[in-house]
Amino acid sequence: MPIKCLRLPLFSWNLKSFSISRTGSFSFTNATITTISKSLHPIIPNGGSCAQTSTFPTKSTIIHHLRNDRLDEARRLFNETPFRDPPLYTMMIAGCTKLGRINDALKLFDEMPLRDVVAWNSMIKGCLDCRDVETAWKMFCEMPERNVVSWTTMLNGFAQSGDIEMAQWLFEEMPQRDVAAWNSMISGYFLNDRIEDARELFKRMHRRNVISWTAMIDGLDKSGRSEEALCLFGEMLVHGIQPTSTTFSSVLTACANTFSFGRGVQIHAHFVKSGFVFDAYVATSLITLYANCGQIDNSLKIFKEVSHRDVVICTALISGYALNGAHKQALKVLLDMTKMGIYPNNSSFTSSLNSCCALEALDTGKEIHSLITKLGLDGDVFVANSLIFLYAKCGVIDDGLMIFNGMGERNLVSWNSIIVGCAQNGRCMMALDLFEKMKLAQVQPDEITFVGLLNGCSHSRMLDKAKYLFELMKQNVSLNLTIEHYVCMVDVLCRCGKLDEAEEFIEHMPMKANSMIWLVLLSACRPYNDAIEVAERAANSVVEMEPNNSAAYVLLSNVYASVGRWNDVLRIRMIMKERQILKQPATSKGIIA
Predict the structure, then answer these.
(1) How many C-beta atoms surround the C-beta of residue 307 within 10 A?
(2) Which of 42, 120, 171, 496 is 20 to 30 A distant from 543 in Cα terms?
(3) What are the Cα distances from residue 189, in Å, to 152, 175, 376?
(4) Residue 225: pLDDT above 60?
(5) Torsion angle, alpha carbons of 516, 518, 524, 525, to 10
(6) In degrees rounded to 5, what are phi and psi of residue 18?
(7) Which tens digits make up the pLDDT trace of 78-88?
């Protein structure tokens, strides 16, 4: 009976009393709602206003809950709503996938009585956002009809997941391509390091918009071709394409990466003349540009000019201060962020922890660690790596090991940080054990790994193990032996008293020895009375390369003094005086008050 009463007025409503949106949803005017309410009043008990309260006001409330990530409240109201059109279902599905609740989204999609192409596209995008490419592809294949958005969404999904071949196949199979599809394919190529393919596709485009140019500029810059990106920006201006703030942000980042201060200033001026207001991305790029070019005061000016500061801008200033050695100022920005109610992100913490390392500020680092834990970012691999490095640098290697052991995800930097940290803190056996575990985890070591291991062997005087590791590295064609590795081997030979072998090792190096490697040998000669000739040859080798290197004279003088050859000590001092070579004072790594 109530259903019949609700249907009768529908035939007499004026079509002007409601409007249809682009997405297919409809909404009634206030006057119409009042009319409906009055016509239903005598029929529904207690002056029923169920249509008024459960349908139209509820929809706006559902939207409000979804915008604020209150999914359960939105779902409760949705279940109570008698009129659920496809747009409302689509909004609910988007709300579920936004929070990663893909199963709830799929359940809602299955419940839909009518599915339009917008709903299908939303569900596919939701699956891709939740990294379920397989389900997204299955749904794409089941779609009764597809539009260009369907194809582009699926293309983006494959590109994001690394299946660029499938993305390329989809692009070629598309029945029609708009400029957005071309732009997506270009971005996909860059995302998968197919730079030349992106360039060729850009050349093939019959119609380009500002997004096309910006995608190319940003992609080239992120691929290490910042100079090409800047040239392309100049070509874009010649074609009369008006840049957007996103374009300016990408170009300024390219200037920062190439340390192009002059061009960066010109683009900054052009941006201001164009009447743009600084947004977060442009301000961040400007802060980074000036910081990279050593103009940190200008970075601070930009920071102060921005009325709305967010975590991205604050992090850029923290990184800029750290890059310019102003580590105390960097840590102050982090403190100011928390006072303003801006929550730091993983990049903020990584840069701040690096400043703590530079200052060896262990107590400050522990306070930051506590904040990281409270914000739930201790599981982030980059933050964890920075914490390991900090604790290792400050000699608290057990805390570093605790963090490493608790990591759910580890990368090469994680393994290197803990291996080098153990080696530097006298835990060579533990470093070697971690190296074996690293191989079992199928993580390929790099040059830094072996520098850490060889250093550990040197401090522990484990000559045979060092030789084994050195040979292991020589056999690995993917690794490059650098001067640092040879310095480590000379050091371990010297620490084990093998001075003649160390000198022979230097003479047969495939590269020219630098002053550092000769100084290692020279420094090791002091405890041995029979090493005068080795010391003299090492000192002469250093002086030939660097005539004013005071360390060579001082170390040789110390060797002479250790065996009582005071006339030679005096001679060395006279030579230093004649050549005006001053002994370099010792330095301390303590924090300057």
Answers:
(1) 7
(2) 496
(3) 14, 21, 34
(4) yes
(5) -150
(6) -140, 160
(7) 887 777 888 88
- Residue 429 · residue 461 · CB < 8 Å: no
Question: What are the two backbone dihedrals, phi and then psi, of residue 19, each rounded to the nearest 5 degrees?
Answer: -125, 150
- Find out whether 162 and 192 touch, Cβ atoms under 8 Å: yes
First to last CA, the chain: 84
The tens digit of pLDDT for each residue in 467-476 reads 999 999 998 8
- Range with the lowest mean pLDDT among 50-54, 150-154, 310-314, 529-533? 50-54
Q: Is 272 exposed, middle or buried (0-12, 13-18, 19+ CB in 10 A)?
A: exposed
- Asked if 150 and 140 count as a contact pair (C-beta separation under 8 A), the reply is yes
The model's pLDDT over 8-23, given as tens digits with 9 standing for 90+, comes to 233 233 333 333 333 3
Query: Which residues are CB-neighbours of 394 under 8 A, at least 6 positions away?
Result: 357, 360, 362, 365
Distance (Å, rounded) from C-alpha 14 to C-alpha 93? Answer: 32
Backbone angles phi, psi at 27, to 5 degrees: -140, 145
Answer whether 140's CB lies under 8 Å from 112's CB. no
What percent of the chain stands above pLDDT 90?
Answer: 60
Q: How many residues does the chain have?
A: 593
Q: At what angle do helices 499-507 and 515-524 cross, to 10 degrees?
A: 170
This prediction's pTM: 0.74
Q: Per residue, what are the HEC states of 456-512?
A: HHHHCCCHHHHHHHHHHHHHCCCCCCCHHHHHHHHHHHHHCCCHHHHHHHHHCCCCC
Closest CA to 302 of 283, 318, 289, 288: 283
In this structure, the number of other CB atoms found within 10 A of the CB of residue 192 comes to: 20
- Map 226-259 to HEC letters: HHHHHHHHHHHHHCCCCCCHHHHHHHHHHHHHCC
Pick the closest to residue 160 from 135, 139, 190, 183 (CA basis). 190
Burial class (CB in 10 A: 0-12, 13-18, 19+), 97: buried
What residues does 513 pair with on adjacent strands?
none
264 close to 252: Cβ distance less than 8 angstroms: yes
Q: What is the pLDDT of residue 49?
A: 37
Radius of gyration of the chain (CA): 34
**Extended strands (E) in 216-305:** none
Q: How confident is the model at residue 57 (pLDDT cuts 50, 70, 90)?
A: low
Contact criterion met (CB below 8 Å) for 263 and 231 = no
Distance CA 418, CA 400 (A): 7
Of the candidates 338, 335, 296, the one whose C-alpha atom is nearest the C-alpha of residue 316 is 296
- Quick: pLDDT tens for 284-319: 999 999 999 999 999 999 999 888 889 999 999 999
Measuring CA to CA, how many Å separate 81 from each of 2, 50, 277, 500?
16, 10, 43, 89
